[in-house]
Every structure is written in structure tokens, then in C-alpha cells.
Write a structure and sequence with these properties.
- The protein is of the alpha/beta class.
- The protein has 4 domains: 29-129, Up-down Bundle (Methane Monooxygenase Hydroxylase, Chain G, domain 1), CATH 1.20.58; 139-262 and 279-303, Polyphosphate kinase middle domain (polyphosphate kinase like, 2-Layer Sandwich), CATH 3.30.1840.10; 351-521, Endonuclease Chain A (Endonuclease, Chain A), CATH 3.30.870.10; 524-723, Endonuclease, Chain A (2-Layer Sandwich).
- Helix content is 34%, strand content 21%.
- Strands 14, 18, 19, 20, 21, 23, 24, 25, 26 and 27 form a 10-stranded mixed β-sheet that branches. Strands 10, 11, 12, 13, 15, 16, 17 and 22 form an 8-stranded mixed β-sheet that branches.
- Strand 26 (671-674) and strand 27 (680-682) form a beta hairpin.
- Helix 13 packs parallel to helix 14 (562-573).
- The longest helix is centred in the first third of the chain and has 33 residues, at 96-128.
- It is globular.
Length: 731
């Protein structure tokens, strides 16, 4: 520590130099603005000319979809807080109104940037590679004949023009539907009457209509343009004065009072219908739409001027992702990768025999998710298996997981599925699977009132010669084979008795009527996850003050919880080296002198969505390594059932600490470093440094023909302070 050089002649103790003090609010980054910074990193991938063209289109579509959800959930929540009687500041010092204005400015800039990305970057680049989007007015005569026929046969029959009657309620505009507002005029003698009408672009039809080409090509017309061109056909006897696209985003939150809901499944179904007509929070309109029409839409939809966004490009660009669908243009995509079977399971017909001998770690999507499906299939068909218990949060549309559970029930096994009906935007799938599981004979539970079931675990109970044995799969990600190909997650297969006993205790809590009695190895939210994480951070702080080895590494999706952030600040002040990999929201400010100068924060946005949660504590040379279903957010600590679980096998810990984490820390291609002001700076190779891309290296290691890399990457893992990589100079 620096000291004041001036001391008295009496030799009094030197006075420590004053350390910078940071007002409480300035210690934290606004949650909503931090999320928008994450989406900015996604946009940067769409703008990055080094990425294959169709991958850029994919990121462009994801960024737009992300904004849709942000308005449906976060902006809608801000508006509700503004309208409530409670006025308070968030941890960063902003009120809901101040946050809303900051968010509005940032999202407006972001949406302008996305439109410009399409007009100036992606559309011209696609045209050079043979992807064209034709205006109806510019079509050749033969194409125009084909489009007219297509419209009359496939589009017109499903269109429903809705007149806006001044004496009646405005037509219901469904959430995120694309619509035309049409002004028509009808003459009666010398008088003329004008009326507004709404025409919804059908969701059941493709938004991009391919023109007929032999061989098939990539020339399209937008369905919305086609409807606009022929819209007069819907209003015979009138003159169409104008037609413009618009789109409404509504509050997407579900409001289910579980205490009052006698039938939770029915209550969630009812709320799903209400979601389509929640309060409007955003109005997107064509850039050239006349001001008077925009004003009428504002009035009818009850949105304020700051909620209006003019779009200079496709009003609903999310569907441009369909360009990436199909067996074409491999040169415009990332190199193909088919995840192999994890080596431990390769050639193994009996998973249970293997798990009696060892734990198995799987890292998706670099290891195939089929091993999880195979584990369930073996359990469903094995005559010695007596029972299967599993949580289901985001199931998706793939039937393999639920299908195995249904087959197990039909085979006479005791099957329990704890289904989270309120997994946001996945509710409909979960309702369907819950009903089918019940029909197959499974016991379906919806967990504890007031808590989302976000833990990911599957417990298999098997009768063996020496008695009953429990086999367990724990994961950081969902039982969803689809997202398992696109999200990075870690899973642990084990037959350890203590973990199996803890899992059985947790399932009894979720399905029965009892109090939490504690667990030996699993850490469970909302009961002890928050306390245990803070205790582990404080343990490193104490060890550092005692001069013992102290170190903290954490990888997660979001860091928001104030007590945890404060504990990390205390650890930093004590000299603990803290390296964080936070994909999305991070409210902690790294690099503040005297507060967080020992903390670095990285974010990696790449081909796969980083989703795994890994927490490492040095613990004076006796490391503790946890994997978790939950992030360090208030909702994960207090409002969800989460599970953090230890990795105790030395070889599996070595894989995480010696291969997986080092790859992320060495990334100098897709990694961004968080600066104290809340912005991110892209990591770049310096001084002849070799470019490193973590996900690419993990793919290379996963390929069966690739020999494991030894030595290099492990040396970059900052396990000790001296080995910690220095941040870029501009931070």
C-alpha cells in the first residue's frame, strides 16, 4: 500500500495515502443499459465482415429478436414502475423514469443502427452473393404474372380487412404482428368519405416469398410488399390513398396468482391468450409513414410519442433469419460441426455400468446432447429401473426427452416430471408436454408456489444386486435438444450416493408438502444459494488478508445482485484476484481504483450462446469448483429453485480448469473487456500474439481426429495473481 512520506520527528506511524472514494450509486452499472450493451455486442457480430455472411444475418435477426423481448419484458416493467405509487432508485441511482428515458435513447440509436446495418451492409453484401429482394414494381412481366397468381391463390383467401369504425373499439392488433394501416376513400355522388382500415400480414405464410427460378435461386419478394401492392383488391369500389406497415410490441409478462389459481395449468393458458393483447409498449412504423397516420395509431393504441420508432428498412426483420434455413450456401456459413459422442460414453452400451465406476462431464454443444437422451432412453427401457424424476424448464418442440419419460411411464416405471409452466415464452410447449405426460401415466407436478423451477436435474433409481442405487444428471442448461446445439452448457453424470440423496430430498420438497431440511453437497436456491456464494467470496477475502492463496473465477450469464457485487468489491480490496466471464448483464464496475482494481470482466459473443455457469474458489490450495443452473441475480437467489453442484472428480476438475476455462481466458478474437464506464472494448491480438478464438478451439478439441492440446491453453488460466492476464492498455 502506498504511504505518505511525511511523518513526525517522533517517528509516528506513516499515514496511509487517501484511497479514492466512490459514491454508492457510481459503483454500479444500470441493469437495463448493461443488457443493451450486450445486444450491442450481438450487433457488432452482424457488422463484422470477418464473419460469414449468413452468420451475420443470423446475428442481425437475433439482435432484433432480443429487442422485441426487451420491450415485452424490461420496458414493460419500467412503465409499470413509473405508473405505480412507489418511487425509488435502483442500485445505480436512477429512478424508473430516468432509466426509461436512458433506455429510450439507447434503443432508438440501436434500432437506427440495425436498419442501417441492413441497408448499408447486409443487403448489398447479399446481393453480391446472389440474394435479391425485388420490388413488385420492378418485376419482369412473367414474374409479375406469377406473383399475382400466387397472391390470389395463397394470400388473398387468408386476409381479413378490418375497417376502423369511429363508433367502435379499435381492432385488436396482436403482439408483434405485422400490419398495414390503409387509408381508403369512397365517393357517394359529390361527397367523399375516407376511412382507415387494418390488414394483418398472416403469420401462417412465409414472410419471404421466393420467385420461381430453375434451378432454384435466392430472389424474393416480401409478403408485406405483395399485400401492399394488391391491397386495393380488398376494397372494391374505393380508392386506396395509402398503405403503410406498422407493428406493435405489447407487455409480454404473465400475471398468474398461484395462490388463487385452483388450476394452475388453466390459469397459465388463460394468461397466454391475454399476452397477445397486453398494453402496447412500442409502435414501429415505416420510416415514410405520414405524421397524421402515426398520430392516429398513437391515439388508438394509447402509446406516447417516445414509444414510436420509425424504421427505415423491413419493419419486422426477425424473419430474415429464414435466409439461413435450408441446404444451400455452405461457403457463407461457419464450418459445419457435428458434435461427437463424449469419449467416456463412446462404445458404451451400458451407461449405468460406466457411472458406477466414474463421473462423466459433458460440455455441450462440443459434446453431443444425444448422451443425455440415451441416458433417459436406457432408463426408460431398463427393467431394473424403478423410477425417474426430472425437472423440465424449457422443453422446446423436440419430443425425445419427454418421449422417453412417457415411454418409461408406459413401461410401468414411477415417473415424476416437475414442469415449470411459466418458463417465459416457452409456456405453450410446457403445457402441451405436461398434458401428454399425464395422459401417459406420469405424475406431473408444478413445483412450489411462488418459485420458478429453474434447476436442471434428472434422477434415476435402479434396483441392483447390492440394493437401490441412484444415478443423477445435473446441468447448467435445459433439457432441450434443440438449444443444446446452440448453447454452451456443462452437465455432470454421477452415481455418487451423497449427491443422489440430496437430489431425492429436493424432489420430495418439490412434489410433497414439507420444509427444506438442508443438503450435504447440493446448494439450493432460495434456501442457501445466496448465503453460500457470499460466504465463499468472503472466505477468499479472509484468506487473502491472512496472506494465504486466494483466487476467484466465475463464469455466468448475468451479475446483478448487489450484496454479491459488494462482496466481490471487498474481496478485490483485500487483494483477491477476481476474473469474471459474464455473457450479458453485469452491474459491477471493474477497474475502479481502491474498489475493484483487482477485478476484470470479459464477455464472449460468438457462434454459440455462452450459457454455462462455473464458480471457482482457490480456498488456500484446496479448490472448490461449482457448476450451477443459476446466475448471480436476485431472481435466481430468491425467486427460483436453483441448484449449484460440486465437481469433485480430480480429472473432471482438471478438464474445466486446464482446458475449458483457459480457452475462454485466452480468447483475443471474440472477447470484450468491460470498462469502468460500462462500455466494452474488443480484445485484439497484440505484439505478434496469435489470434485465439475460444469456441473454435473447443470445437477443434472435440473432433475425434484432433489430439488434445497440452500445455498451451492451461498456462493462460489466471489461477494465481501473478498469472492473471493484464487488461488491455486502454482499460
Amino acid at each position: 500500500m502506498a504511504t505518505n512520506k511525511h511523518t513526525s520527528r517522533a517517528g509516528r506511524r506513516a499515514v496511509p495515502a487517501a484511497r479514492p472514494r466512490h459514491p454508492k450509486a457510481s459503483r454500479y452499472i444500470n441493469r437495463e443499459l448493461s443488457w443493451l450493451e450486450f445486444n450491442q455486442r450481438v450487433i457488432e457480430e452482424a457488422l463484422d465482415g470477418k464473419n460469414p455472411l449468413l452468420e451475420r444475418v443470423k446475428f442481425f435477426s437475433i439482435a432484433n429478436s432480443n429487442l422485441d423481448e426487451f420491450f415485452e419484458v424490461r420496458v414493460a416493467g419500467l412503465k409499470q414502475r413509473i405508473e405505480s405509487a412507489v418511487v425509488e432508485r435502483s442500485i445505480d441511482g436512477l429512478t424508473a423514469t430516468e432509466t426509461f428515458h436512458a433506455v429510450t435513447r439507447r434503443t432508438r440509436d440501436m434500432m437506427h443502427a440495425l436498419s442501417a446495418c441492413w441497408r448499408n451492409e447486409l443487403k448489398p453484401a447479399l446481393a453480391k452473393r446472389g440474394f435479391h429482394f425485388r420490388r413488385i414494381e420492378d418485376l419482369a412481366p412473367d414474374d409479375l404474372v406469377w406473383v399475382r397468381r400466387f397472391y390470389r391463390q395463397n394470400v388473398r383467401p387468408v386476409l381479413t380487412p378490418l375497417a376502423v369504425d369511429p363508433t367502435k373499439a379499435f381492432p385488436l392488433i396482436l403482439n408483434k404482428s405485422l400490419n398495414h394501416i390503409v387509408r381508403v376513400e369512397r365517393k357517394r355522388g359529390r361527397a367523399a368519405e375516407q376511412r382507415l382500415c387494418i390488414v394483418q400480414v398472416p403469420r401462417v405464410l412465409p414472410r419471404l416469398v421466393p420467385l420461381p427460378r430453375t434451378p432454384p435461386g435466392h430472389e424474393y419478394v416480401f409478403l408485406a410488399d405483395m399485400i401492399s401492392h394488391f391491397v386495393a383488391d380488398l376494397f372494391p369500389g374505393t380508392t386506396v390513398l395509402s398503405a403503410w406497415c406498422f407493428r406493435v410490441t405489447r407487455n409480454g409478462e404473465l400475471y398468474v396468482d398461484e395462490d388463487d389459481a385452483e388450476n394452475l395449468l388453466q390459469a397459465v393458458e388463460n394468461e397466454l391468450r391475454n399476452r397477445r393483447r397486453g398494453n402496447a409498449v412500442r409502435l414501429e412504423v415505416d420510416h415514410y409513414c405520414p405524421e397524421n397516420l402515426v398520430a392516429e395509431l398513437q391515439e388508438k393504441l394509447e402509446v406516447a410519442p417516445e414509444d414510436v420508432y420509425r424504421i427505415n428498412g423491413p419493419v419486422n426483420p426477425v424473419h430474415l433469419n429464414t435466409l439461413c434455413v435450408g441446404d444451400h450456401s455452405p461457403e457463407l456459413r461457419d464450418p459445419p460441426f457435428v458434435a461427437p459422442t463424449p469419449p467416456a460414453f463412446s462404445g458404451r452400451a451400458d451407461y449405468f455400468e460406466l457411472l458406477r465406476q466414474q463421473d462423466v462431464l459433458v460440455h455441450h454443444p462440443f459434446d453431443s446432447f444425444d448422451c443425455v437422451v440415451d441416458f433417459l432412453n436406457q432408463a426408460a427401457d431398463d427393467p431394473r429401473v424403478l423410477a425417474i424424476k426430472q425437472t423440465l424448464y424449457r422443453t422446446g418442440g423436440d419430443a425425445r426427452i419427454v418421449g422417453a419419460l412417457m415411454r418409461a411411464a408406459q413401461n410401468g416405471k414411477q415417473v415424476t416430471a416437475v414442469v415449470e409452466l411459466q418458463a417465459r415464452f416457452d409456456e405453450a410447449n410446457n403445457i402441451r408436454w405436461a398434458r401428454e405426460l399425464e395422459e401417459a401415466g406420469a405424475h406431473v407436478s408444478y413445483g412450489l408456489v411462488g418459485y420458478k423451477i429453474h434447476a436442471k436435474l434428472c434422477l434415476v433409481i435402479r434396483q441392483e444386486d447390492e440394493g437401490l442405487r441412484r444415478y443423477l444428471h445435473l446441468s447448467t442448461g435445459n433439457y432441450n435438444p434443440g438449444t443444446a446445439r446452440a448453447y454452451t452448457d456443462l452437465g455432470l453424470f454421477t452415481a455418487r450416493a451423497d449427491l443422489g440423496e440430496d437430489a431425492a430430498t429436493l424432489f420430495n420438497l418439490l412434489t410433497g408438502f414439507c420444509q427444506f431440511q438442508g443438503t450435504r453437497k447440493l446448494i439450493v436456491a432460495p434456501f442457501d444459494f445466496h448465503r453460500r456464494i457470499i460466504d465463499l467470496i468472503r472466505q477468499e477475502t479472509r484468506l487473502a488478508r491472512e496472506g494465504k492463496p486466494a483466487r476467484l473465477i466465475a463464469k455466468m450469464n448475468a451479475l446483478v445482485d448487489q450484496p454479491v457485487i459488494d462482496a466481490l468489491y471487498d474481496a478485490s480490496k483485500a487483494g483477491v484476484k477476481v476474473d469474471l466471464i459474464v455473457r450479458g448483464i453485469c452491474c459491477l464496475r471493474p477497474g475502479l481504483p481502491g474498489l475493484s482494481e483487482n477485478i476484470t470482466v470479459r464477455s464472449i459473443v460468438d457462434r454459440f450462446l455462452e450459457h454455462s455457469r462455473v464458480f471457482y474458489f482457490e480456498n488456500a490450495g484446496a479448490p472448490q469448483l461449482l457448476l450451477s443452473s443459476g446466475d448471480w441475480m436476485n431472481r435466481n437467489f430468491e425467486k427460483r429453485i436453483e441448484v449449484a453442484f460440486p465437481v469433485e472428480s480430480p480429472s473432471l476438475r482438471d478438464r474445466i480448469l486446464g482446458e475449458i476455462l483457459p480457452a475462454y481466458f485466452a480468447d483475443n478474437t471474440k472477447a470484450r473487456w468491460l470498462a469502468a464506464d460500462g462500455t466494452y472494448v474488443r480484445r485484439q491480438p497484440v505484439d505478434g500474439e496469435k489470434p485465439r478464438r475460444s469456441q473454435f478451439e473447443l470445437i477443434q478439441r472435440a473432433r475425434p481426429e484432433t489430439k488434445p492440446v497440452k500445455g498451451g491453453p492451461a498456462e493462460t488460466l489466471p489461477v494465481r495473481g501473478a498469472e492473471r492476464p493484464a487488461p488491455p492498455s486502454d482499460l
